[in-house]
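Human: Here is a favour to ask of a fellow structure person. Comparing notes only helps if you start from a blank page. Give me a protein, with the fold worked out from its sequence. Please set it down just below, with no commentary around it:

Assistant:
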Amino acid sequence: MVIVSFADKKTERVFQRQRSRKLPANIQKRARDKLLVLDNATCERDLRPLPGLRHEPSGEDWPGPWRLRIDERWSLCFDWQDGSARAVQIVARPR
């Protein structure tokens, strides 16, 4: 497993195929798909060439140095250390 820690329970629930009442239902399947891709990556570089994955540095508005966009408002933010994703969380863009 590449994901070694989650920043919150709601993200961990989505990863475990459980519903989270704290997240909109319409983003949970897409978020789970991206979590599975992240979990199967063997290195951060594996995330770059996948079309539509939208892997990018997170910038100032987002926690963690990396993110995978779920849609225009929601992203999966994480830190990559020693071949593992850490502090993974589903986050909405601040308004």
